[in-house]
Design goal:
Layout: H1 2-14, H2 19-28, E1 35-38, E2 50-54, H3 58-62, E3 71-72, E4 86-92, H4 101-111, E5 112-121, H5 123-126, H6 130-135, H7 137-144, H8 150-157, E6 161-164, E7 167-168, H9 189-193, H10 196-201, H11 203-219, H12 221-225, E8 234-235, E9 239-245
Parallel strand pairs: 1-2, 1-4, 2-3, 4-5
Antiparallel strand pairs: 5-9, 6-9, 7-8
Length: 246
């Protein structure tokens, strides 16, 4: 929660939901009439069927749009909700921040009647992303301490369908790998302020790698090395939807 209280001030500015990813998440909910959003943040990707959001950071809750579903300030590991409270529970880009993964997944199971949907990333693929692999290996090593392997999540869910979610080249949601074809964005402190990894590592750790990226962009080296990306419409950088029927 401390991380999101610190990055929350600019989160809504740079983390606008991407409509193509929203469509995938909404489809994964399978027509649920009622949805609980756990680790809800500012409310990105909440469908109209959302009846309640749960978020531990008051700073994030304060940025939720006025017409959003009501929000409770609470953690995923101890949801203040009755059993079978909604048709579906969803948790989007949040499980890697939970202090007790098993407890959190257990709570999703408890409050959902029909389905649990997770949007997460596969660290084995995500950590090969050029930004981490070539410029910020320290970040990849740090991320290993918190990233959750997809097969572990599938096991905790008691089985789940795993869907690949390619990231569009013009993705409007500024999560870590969203700018895979727009490398200059990582030099913008406003963009970095909305990415939890940068907030957790600190400027002194990431600055040398960002300076190398700046130099490679100025010299054209990055574009020569990654010319194959420049005409791609989307890219698999490890983001996954996990859909578990209860």
């Amino acid at each position: 929660m401390a991380t999101y209280n610190s990055i929350g001030a600019t989160y809504a500015e740079t983390r606008r939901p991407d409509p193509r990813i929203f469509a995938r998440i909404h489809q994964a909910l399978g027509g649920a009439a009622t949805v609980i959003n756990v680790g809800a943040g500012t409310g990105s990707y909440e469908p109209p069927e959302t009846v309640l959001a749960v978020e531990p950071s008051a700073v994030m809750i304060a940025q939720r749009p006025s017409r959003s579903a009501p929000a409770l300030e609470a953690t995923a590991e101890a949801l203040p909700l009755a059993d079978d409270s909604a048709d579906a529970a969803m948790a989007l880009l949040t499980v890697h921040h939970w202090s007790d993964l098993e407890a959190g997944i257990g709570e999703l199971h408890r409050v959902a009647r029909r389905r649990v949907v997770l949007f997460t990333f596969d660290p084995d693929i995500n950590h090969r992303f050029w930004l981490l692999d070539e410029y910020l290996p320290e970040a990849a090593r740090f991320d290993t301490t918190r990233a959750v392997p997809v097969d572990r999540l599938v096991a905790l869910l008691g089985g789940a369908r795993v869907e690949t979610v390619p990231v569009p080249h013009d993705c409007t949601d500024g999560f870590l790998a969203a700018f895979w074809r727009r490398p200059e964005a990582y030099l913008d402190p406003r963009v970095r302020a909305g990415i939890s990894m940068f907030a957790q590592l600190g400027e002194d750790v990431v600055r040398p790698g960002l300076d190398r990226l700046d130099g490679d962009l100025s010299s054209g080296r990055w574009h020569r090395r990654h010319a194959g990306l420049l005409d791609r419409e989307s890219l698999d950088v490890g983001y996954r939807l996990l859909v578990a029927d209860l």
